[in-house]
Amino acid sequence: MRYYKSFILFSLLALVFVACDTDDLEKDIDALKDRVASVEAQVQRLNDEMNILRVALDGNKTITNYSINGDTYTLTLSNGETLTLTQGEVGDNYPSIDISEDGYWVIAGNKTEWRAKAKDGEDATITPQFKIDENPDADGKKYWWVSYDDSTWKVLENGLAEGENNNPPLINKVEVKDGYFNVTIGEQVYQIPVVEGLECAINAEGLVDGLWTIAGGVEASFSVKVNLADGDLVRVNAPADWNAKVSEYSAGATDVTVTLTPPITPSECTIVVEVTRGVNTASDQIKAKTISDSYWAEYQAGFDIKIGDVVINKFDYPNAELKGDGEEITAEGIYFIAKGAMVSLPNNSLKNLILIAENKSEHSKLITSSDKLSVEVNLLCKGIHLSGKTTRNYWFNLGGSKIIERLYFEECEIEIPDGKSFTYFSLGVGIKNFMINSCRISMSGYTETKALTFLALYTKTYSDITIKNNIFYCRTAGTYTNCTLMSLTAGQGNIDGNVVFDNNTFMNIFNHQNNYYVQVEFESGWSMKRNLVWYDNGAQGTTKAFISKAKDADKLNIINEDFAGNHVFTSLASSSIKLWKPFNSTPNPEFHNEIEMNLGTIPFEAGFSASEGKYTLKPEYQGIGATIE
Known about the structure:
The protein is mostly beta strands.
């Protein structure tokens, strides 16, 4: 009996210790939650403060209404935007933020290239945004990061977010006084007028990334939300050749209409609408651009023309030329090729070359008349129909020991010579950025002796590779092409960037030699999504895969979402191929290594042409494969 009592006492003591351990664990969890909440509060507060500072520096917004809940202000601006700002300490771990004497943002002690203040009547539109995340170059410690476009983030060199520093919060004080919302930053006080009911918010249909595009020479209009009182004035400011006017208005109006007739020639401008009440003015603005079918005309008008991440305009590249039919390109530079023209390229070793079609809706033709096409630094093509002949087994060549900066093809038609591979990148060659986007790529029919290669990679390191929204097709009617789309020789090369292989269409394009399209060890974070395979002949074997394998070190991170939405269609009622799959071998047990196969199904509307690579998808299959106008 004495033993029984001792056992009970021991058990109770054990429970006490377990309870203590549980309490400690709960305290640790609570402390972790508090730290996470503190970090989130710091980030939110700093971004809120930056938005308030943006409005204060802007100077063309008023506050139509505000409310206070404890330490939190909720502001409604004259353009309809709502901002919040919470006062009170949430930690002192902020990066330093300042504005230079000439009006540029100074972040963490470094002057940036981004303006904080308006200049020459043009508003400063960049508002830095911040986040806290791990810094891979600092053993994963938490650092402040900054973005100037809401998508690209850069770590702040002196922005350690762990521990404490001496940088104070950006905004020291806010108060509403004498009809103004006063914001104190350092020793400077910025004021935002508080004018109840003063509104000016533009509503233009068809805005894309804040840009309003309209036809040149054709009248167009947009509405502006207002709340007019007696004596209010509404004005629109635009260049004289845009012929802008405001509809009639009166007190009590809740919207007005702005009508414009832009010039026929390519033109771009900022349109500003102002509503003035007494000494206060509220305004809103949009950027407008006339639609043009000519890249050459837009270049002459000073517009930006983008090829991937490269921006071409006459200010940065003033010496572009327009080439006509029968002319040759014999030197490096930027060339526009005239509509309907056929231009030849006899020189096979130009280091820098940018080729752009004059007309947006019609490819300009470039004939390679040398034995091979080669470039050493950059080759960028937009809207070009590329064709030619070669006596070699490959058409496009990079030799020697070079690192190519960019190799881009966008909205092009690539007609690979009969029986030839597109590329041969020899030993020692590397490419920092490769992109082929929204192109039609045709290859000749099957030959018994070899498989054609589209993109052959060898010994050097390659960075980002983007193959997106393209149609690969066999132009020889009634047959198919035996092709490897991308090949990296095992053990001899490396890709240290990202690979995107999305929304491509393959029409009678196969690989019978290795049984997979892409001979690359795929890594986590790369993607192969929403691709479409179609065939009506030539398919062999019992299985077929897109990719050779996942990289062993990262195979557990290969997830289904990165390989979702791929489909195989065939008009054949039966096929020797019983299974299509993303990987030649399953990366991990949780990965769904099968691609949906649709026997006897044609996903295209009537009238499609497999040998021309042209089709329209049926409504139920929209979003799969490439979409090219």
